[in-house]
Write a structure and sequence with these properties.
Layout (H helix, E strand, L loop, with lengths): L3 H17 L4 H5 L6 H14 L8 H17 L8 H9 L9 E9 L2 E2 L4 E2 L14 E9 L2 H6 L3 E4 L9
Antiparallel strand pairs: 1-4, 1-5, 2-3
Helix pairs in contact: 3-4, 4-5
């Protein structure tokens, strides 16, 4: 026997998920939004209203950033679709985490041309082996510079894993 109440709730849940996820004919053809310009436009307001150096608690710092972003979305500075990406930058920061550092790990290595002493992919990089031809990096926060280097990372000091804005 089919329970109409459960079937109706199941249908409603599926509809909410489909609408909430942006699944639909319009989102399939819409071009993805580049959120970097919006993040950079919001950076001054975020730094002023949620200063990293003054943060005593990481979760409270991220919550502050989220509240400010609501205002910036409302005034059109940040597109709605970029709010989550900008919030993730705060979440991937050392703000409110005493002693923490950003820690960079080689993500993709190129090839060293030993005859020329430069990386094949970027001749401006000098090398003696391919481990010096770093094409991209992954960033995570670690509890200290020592814990970063202990796992093969390079400490970047405090701040965010997101790129800096000119």
């Amino acid at each position: 026997m089919i329970n109409l109440k459960q079937t109706g709730l199941h249908f409603l849940a599926m509809l909410v998920l489909a609408l909430g996820s942006g699944a639909g004919p319009q989102s399939a053809s819409a071009a993805p939004v580049d959120c970097e310009p919006a993040r950079c436009a919001a950076q001054d307001a975020l730094a002023m209203r949620c200063p990293c150096d003054a943060a005593t608690n990481h979760g409270k710092h991220v919550s502050c950033v989220n509240r400010v972003l609501k205002d910036l979305v409302r005034d059109g500075t940040v597109p709605t679709s970029c709010k989550g990406k900008v919030t993730r930058c705060a979440a991937r920061s050392t703000c409110g985490k005493s002693g923490f550092v950003t820690c960079y790990f080689p993500d993709e290595l190129g090839t060293c041309d030993l005859a020329l002493g430069t990386c094949v992919e970027d001749a401006s990089l000098a090398c003696t082996d391919s481990s010096q031809c770093v094409l991209s990096l992954t960033c995570r926060t670690r509890s200290s510079a020592e814990s970063c280097t202990a796992v093969g990372g390079i400490s970047g000091g405090g701040g965010s894993c997101c790129g800096s804005c000119g």
